[in-house]
Amino acid sequence: MKTTVDSLEGNRLGLFIDGQYTAPGSGRYVESFDPATGQAWYQFAEADDGDVDRAVRSARQAFHSPAWRRMTQTDRGKLVRRLAELVLENAERLALLETRDNGKLLREMRAQMRALPDSYTYFAGMADKLQGDTIPVNKLDQLNFNIREPLGVIGMITPWNSPLMLLTGTLAPCLAIGNTVVIKPSEHATASTLALAELIMLAGFPAGVVNVVSGGGAVTGEALTRHPGIDKYVFTGSTDTGRRIAGNAANNLAPCQMELGGKSPHVVFADVDIEKAVNGVVSGVFAAAGQTCVAGSRCFVEASIYQRFVEALVARTQRITVGHPMEEGTDIGPLALQAQLQKLQHYVALGASQGARVAVGGRRPSGADLAQGWYFEPTVLADASNDMTFMRDELFGPVVGVVPFSSEEEMISMANDTAYGLASGVWTQNIDRAMRFASRIDAGTVWINTYRSAAYMSANGGFKDSGYGRRGGFDVMREFSRAKNIVIDY
Ligand code: NAD
What we know:
- This protein is an alpha/beta fold and 490 residues long.
- The protein is 38% helix and 21% strand.
- The protein has helices at 49-64, 66-69, 73-89, 91-102, 106-124, 163-177, 191-203, 217-226, 239-251, 274-286, 306-318, 339-353, 389-392, 408-416, 431-440, 475-479, and strands spanning 11-13, 15-17, 20-22, 29-34, 39-45, 133-134, 142-150, 153-157, 180-184, 210-212, 232-236, 256-259, 265-268, 298-302, 357-360, 379-382, 399-405, 420-421, 423-427, 445-448, 463-464, 467-468, 481-489.
- The strands form six sheets. Strands 15-16-17-14-13-19-20 form a seven-stranded mixed beta sheet, with helices on both faces.
- The longest helix has 19 residues, at 106-124.
- The N and C termini lie far apart (59 Å).
- The relative contact order is 0.13.
- The mean pLDDT is 96.
- The structure holds nicotinamide-adenine-dinucleotide.
- Keywords: Oxidoreductase.
- GO terms for molecular function: oxidoreductase activity, acting on the aldehyde or oxo group of donors, NAD or NADP as acceptor.
């Protein structure tokens, strides 16, 4: 069994259970594909019920073990800081693994990996700040107080689009607080999480504190979310999968934290610098080939500048370079999943048949060098309306619909007319108008004259079908700890 994921090409990667790489009980391995070439490049193990049970038992044992339970808060914080250093030392390797797995731009993955250590360091600081409170209860001969404890074993299920970045926001505080975890990474991007497991071992975490069970949703995901030994689930992924996981977890009365899909509105008022707003809209929706949960895929533009805005948006979109994710000049790489190509083509055709105008894009790029990869041109569907099918469903690709509006009232009712509530953006010079938007929009995040700017220091999460629970900031300490009430008579 490989003990390192350094050179993956053609290799088989095991599960990471109880501090070591191990073969799956079923002996089953699955191919992982490179989206830029469409070629298989390594195999990952598929964990079944038995493997997941081994991982959960190991995490439970580690949770109660003196090595972890009796470690001082300061020492736990030091371990998380040591992990931050190791992530920094290995940033380039981790970035390469993610780019090969999910097709996102190497420079973006590099930026994410270089930012991760700061995030680990921030959450490491929570290790010695988990404190309870004393409660006045009208009894002078009683002391009534709450202590806060770690929750226990946390099951984490991650998507492929930014595996380590999305994992860190919950893994780092969970470890700092003293929980143990079982992680199931996406079957479309497994390598970087297994590489992180190696760093966790090197940092000196006791065996079993972190376990990684790879495999698809139907086998490994189901095994993990039906397991009675998990105290809380953290899920990042699509809304449909979130519903399924919450259903499974409910049978064991296990709570969940859900970061789900989005169909975020991006609003442009007539008083803006059009070029600046166009750049904001382009980066807000086309970054990572539209494969971000916060993609501002519904763009509402004030009617008086609508024509000029659409022309500028189309011109800017035509200048986007679609290409190999490891090349410097590339703005947009391939889609991570082959099935996404057909899905996007279907939605664009449906949008056109429902009356939208394909102003640019809408197909696979023509260059021979891109023929093998899963590339799709950035697409603007102008003259759209909010009830068209592509404006309702999350496409998770580089497609934006543009709709004119005549009044704030009309705009806010369209912007809120969606099942989702993850993020939103507004471009205007008028602060009153921006704040009216911020107070009336049903979304967990509001960006004013910017988009996609996120920080691990602030709590964030979705409204409506975009999920529940908060990540980031100090809220996260309550999410992964519990109060225990103690009463002393004296
Ligand atoms: P997905 O829902 O298909 O898969 C996510 C994870 O769930 C994967 O690990 C998958 O194997 C697992 N899974 C699938 N079926 C399962 C089951 N029955 N039981 C347990 N686990 C199961 O999502 P994806 O395609 O990997 O990611 C894209 C989606 O994630 C988009 O909808 C995007 O908006 C969302 N997302 C949300 C956020 C956020 O912070 N809100 C961030 C990133 C991505």
